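hi support,

uploading two proteins for the ticket. first:
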Amino acid sequence: MGCNNFLFWKSRFEDVLELHDLEDVIKTETHPQKKLPDCSLNPAYSKDKVVLSWIKATTSSSIKTLLITWSTAYEAWTLLEKRLSPMSKTYIRTLQDQIRTPKKDPEQSVADYLIHAKSLFDSVTMLAPQFLMANLLIKYSMA
């Protein structure tokens, strides 16, 4: 998962969590103890670590760096929603920057670059009202 396909990734990830009856792990803020009083492994801790590792395993390297400091699946999930949700100011700003300064990495194929450009265009199309409003606010705040 990268910056431009968060909603698709989130939808698929939630389906997997539902299938494994793990939706509560990302919806409930908990810090489960590793061991139970009888010294056995806490099932809630195990579930949390499984979901956290799935989140980290399915994100791009640039996203993984955001997740390094978080120790629970809930914290990681909340951060991703806050940073990558199409309605977030950070996401809109990032999208604006990518559209204003398009560049192809030297190692990137033309096909991959075009797919990335199409993904940016699709994101703008989906966010048109918010994107246009953000541009107007920036334009008039600089005047």
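and the second one:
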Amino acid sequence: MFKLAWWKDESNVKGANALVGFLKVVVPLLVVSGATVAGWFGWQKQQTPSAPPPAAVSAPAPSMNITADNGSAVQTGSGTQVLTGANSTVTIGFSEQAFFDQLDKREAQLRADLTQASEAERTLLESQLQAVSAQKDDIDTAYKETLAELAALRATLETFKGQVGETELAAAQSAVTEGDRGVADQVLSQAADAGDARTAARASFARAKIAEQEFRWADAAALYARAAELDPTYENLVKAREMAWRIDDLDASLRFGAQLVEVAEASAGPADLSKAYNEYGLSLNNADQFAASRDMFQKAADLTANTFGEMNPEYATTISNLAEAWHDLGDLEKAEELYRKVLEIDRATIGDESANYAVTVQSLADLLYELERFDEAKQLYEEAYAVRSVALEDGHPDMAESMGTMAYVLWERGEIDKARDLHKRALALATQTLGPDHSTTVLIREDHDEFMEEEGE
């Protein structure tokens, strides 16, 4: 009755993978697994056009200078933040509430754009919308990261001293402390146009980071690409490939991925080389070159195991990608073997109560359902639902997925009223967090309508 694997719809997988890569850069290897990208460990997948940046946020009243002990952010009485480091103190003049309001404005703009988007534009807009929602769900972390990003941008501007006008540079740095990146973007654009190739690459890279922070991913992709073309360093190629992947520019993603591997094999250490193999594997997988992507993921897995050992999150991330590649090639038994290995590592490292663990459980459940091992799948759906119910906030979009599959479990048990109620909640949550026109919400609604029809309502 239920489609169950609605989150494996092609557009949903692309959007989920892109979101995950955007959210975390904690462990240098991404997990590409069924529903969302398993693990939130660090990289990305596709998208398309850009949307305008969020409106500038006015700063609250001037803040006091407060010194932290060890480079931490300190909240002042006026709600602003002071970042202190070894050599300097930077006062960032907008509060967490102002940051939240900025995200609200961007979310509203994306939702408005989504109502008028073509089918080709929807994946990008939905992925950017999910990224905004994810920041709002963990606003404290997102705010601290944004403060650090603003302080880094201010420092980056300082490196262009003498290459742009002093007045313009001072204005840009002042605006950054108020949470406004627009003036900085203009100054960096001037530096890119006036400087030599390396200066232009640095300025383009800095502008790309601004665009990425403002959820203008197509703009970011173009700017990272320019930086990589002008100066094909490891860092520039990593970001150029990543953003091309997010906006679903397959040709650019493959081109930069191949260059990244070439540069890494020539000069990178084992960790960066493993990351390069993994990143290129993602591009190959997205281009439906499944055998080639499997080979890249296998290289990353072997190198990671040799460098870090097998019982660590990095290796788990890598073999999750490898499991997905084997799944794409039709070897479900091999994929199952690898997913079970991931769960073994997760239990020993991050524990069996984390949201990341639940993602892998959900992926294995999907696989077993596909193999028609329904009883085993149902047990795992229950486990994923139980873990997510504790690990995630009530309004987290991933809960809609688990609610939908748990409704199936209840329906199979004959607990029809509970199943119907849970599926209604899944639809309401998807509508609220993702929007009524999001492809995930549409598919849940189709399952919901089918459920009601079968129950005679």
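thanks. also noticed: DSSP finds 19 helices and three strands in the chain.
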